[in-house]
Amino acid sequence: MRACGYALIESLLASVILATGLLVAVSVFCVSSAASFHNRQRTIALTLAREKMEELRHSTASGTLQVGGSIDPLHAVPGYREFIRIDATNPPSVGVSPSQATHLRLWEIRRAGLQTLTTAVFEWRSPRTPVELARISSAW
Fold first, then answer.
1. What is the pLDDT of residue 5?
2. Entry pTM
3. Using CA atoms, how far apart are residues 73 and 139, in angstroms rounded to an integer?
């Protein structure tokens, strides 16, 4: 009779250990999935920032670059901002309306001795809660 009682307790203990292991595995999967999504967003943002930086550097060579702009998403300067829509099936669409945008790209050009160019990309959830994903600066 005692052997039957121990088997029941052992089975219960094994079930608890198995459930704990499965819970840990699921939580690790959830954390890694969130980290993967965040890394994808940062990669997209860095690519958008680098593209704009290269475009503006080429404009500098032709002498068409004007000083101005702002990196503040709540006070973006027209002419120094782009609303961008990115989805899983299409290439990025630049110049969409703010209501359709997923990202906001801003740039600022300063000239104080050296010319400084700063580009920033924000996740565009709404006009009041943009989240900065990437910022790149260069001086020459």
1. 62
2. 0.74
3. 22
